[in-house]
Amino acid sequence: MFHLVLVFTIAIGLGLGASGNKSTGSVSVPSLLEGTSEGAGSLLDGTSEEVQQAAQDDWQPEDQTPTGKFTTATEVKPILSMTKPNWVAVRDYDGKDLLYFTNLLAWRCGLHQVSYGVNGAAEQPLDFEECHLDTGQPNALTMETLMPFLTFDAGSINSLSVTVIYDDGTTDTATYQRSDILMP
Asked: How far is C-alpha 102 from the geometric centre of its chain's CA atoms?
């Protein structure tokens, strides 16, 4: 089973379809998600293009030589593509909605920016801790300065849009409904 997942991961990373031929069309995504992993991507209100432009001002894509430590888009993009339904989660806890970005932030070393919009609002950048490139676990979350979640009023998150800008300059977007990302 592990080998099958590995081959599938490599195929996605190379843009190969099930036939082994390089695919040029879009991949079908489960109904709870909308978005694209090709080009700039645009949310219905157009905010992702604005967010992408702001993130790329005075920024250049990083070297994509694999490090073996999952610190480049080349290394993390196949993982995040396969775990897209789990990028975020909402938890009703202690009278608040907690919006978790743990899955995305666990692979943040291959990301340039993450932005989010709640209930159709314009997307805003998410602050997250730097990579720990001088350690054996560069993607580890220390949670010393920033937590991997945001707090909102109870029951206030109905829908969510997320845009990821990888450190190679490509983007990916997703939209979620509360029921699809609500934790028990």
From this structure: 10
Q: Are 23 and 78 in contact (CB under 8 A)?
A: no
Whole-angstrom Cα distance, residue 164 to residue 80? Answer: 10
CB 162 within 8 A of CB 116: yes
Sheet holding 149-153, edge to edge: 89-93, 96-100, 149-153
Choose among 177, 174, 146: nearest CA to 42.
174
Cα–chain-centroid distance for residue 20?
26
Other CB atoms within a 10 A radius of the CB of residue 120 amount to 14
Question: What string of pLDDT tens digits covers the 184 residues of the chain?
Answer: 434 334 334 444 444 333 333 333 333 333 333 333 333 344 444 444 555 555 556 777 777 777 788 889 999 999 999 999 999 999 999 999 999 999 999 999 999 999 999 999 999 999 999 999 899 999 999 998 899 999 999 999 999 999 999 999 999 999 999 999 999 9
